[in-house]
Amino acid sequence: MWAKTRSPRLRASTIVSDHGLSLPDVSITESPSISSATRPAVRSSPALSPSRASDFKQCPLLYRFRAVDRIPEKSTKAQVKGTVVHAALEALYGMPTATRSFATAVDLVDPAWDRVVAESPELEELLAPEERASLLDQARELVHGYYEMEDPTRFDPESCEQRVEIELEDGTPLRGFIDRIDVAPNGMVRVVDYKTGKSPREFTEAKALFQMKFYALVIMRMRGIVPAQLKLMYLADKQSLTYTPDEGELQRFERMLSAIWKAILSAGETGDFQPKRTKLCSWCDHQALCPEFGGTPPAYPGWPAVSTR
After folding, report:
1. How far is CA 59 from CA 187, 201, 263, 269, in A?
2. What is the dihedral of CA 168, 173, 178, 184, to 10 degrees?
3. pLDDT below 70 — which residues of the chain?
4. CA pair distance 166, 54, nearest whole angstrom
5. 114 within 8 A of 168, measured Cβ to Cβ
6. Residues forming beta bridges with residue 70, ordered by sequence position
7. How far is residue 145 from each of residues 59, 105, 171, 175, 238, measured CA to CA in Å?
8. At how many degrees (to 10) do helices 50-58 and 202-223 cross?
């Protein structure tokens, strides 16, 4: 069940989650250096991620364009801003606990931008100089919002931006990146995801819940325990959504993911990825290639031997 709260400023006390988890001092594992919005493609075998599973549910043809044809899409300013904030927070948690002051975090925004552009140079052309200055100011405001929700000098995560990859018993491969994993001294696990937009309405809340169930299942299968809490932190309006999963619910979700993967493989064999017209088509980059809008998809290249995710 979701719980929605507005996060107050933290007082000088030990951070405790909604489940009473006091967070331990543990080190950060090695993690990727850029968020998934603009992370360079890594060639690997096909797998389900939250985004690719959502793509197929939304529109099988969109899945094909992204996962099979891999047609490039332009990053949006919102995506770039989110990437910069994620990079800054990742760098923050790579520092000694006592040094994670607000001033330090704000100073990490410009280097985060440099880091993002170094890995994806095309992003620099997306923004004029004055637009970049405005975007970085907005990123600093989001970092400020984070400090109103949590005090990073009071705990150490187990990992940040961790790549996770498992295979379910029926062979369904799952893959993704988890923003943060916290582990309490008693072994209880909390999964945290940062969002740089505002807290969701009913439709987008369902999409957020899908993502968190995905990572809850991955943790359950990797560690043999159900996470105590999954938390989405919406930095723009300083609200959090928390979710407490149970094993039966995650088992049902697992069966659903297996069914999605089976449908993807079936479509992959024939190339029959049907378009599905929805309200979200207004934001799709591929209308010119979509039969629903009078377009013609490129010739089907065949199911890839390798894919990005």
Report:
1. 39, 21, 12, 17
2. 20
3. 1-45, 201-204, 306-309
4. 18
5. no
6. none
7. 34, 11, 41, 29, 6
8. 130
Of 65, 59, 64, nearest in space to 265 by CA: 64
Q: Which of 76, 75, 52 is closest to 65 using CA atoms? A: 52
Q: For residue 307, which amino acid is it? A: S
Give dist(CA 202, CA 206) in Å, integer: 6
Between β-strands 2-6 and 229-234, what pairing exists: parallel, antiparallel or unpaired? Answer: unpaired
| Half-sphere exposure in the Cβ direction for 159 (13 Å, CA) | 16
Using the structure block, give the residue that is written with the tokens 């704000």: 106
Amino acid at 43: R
For 214-251, the pLDDT digits (tens) are: 999 999 999 999 999 999 999 999 999 898 999 999 99
Q: Which helix (H) or strand (E) holds 215?
A: helix 202-223
Distance linking the first and last C-alpha atoms of the chain: 29
Cross-strand bridge partners of residue 230: 191, 243
Question: Residue 201 corresponds to which tokens in the numbers above?
Answer: 């309405």
Cβ-in-10-Å burial (0-12, 13-18, 19+) of 24 comes to middle
- What value, to the nearest 5°, has the Cα angle with vertex 124 and ends 119 and 129? 145
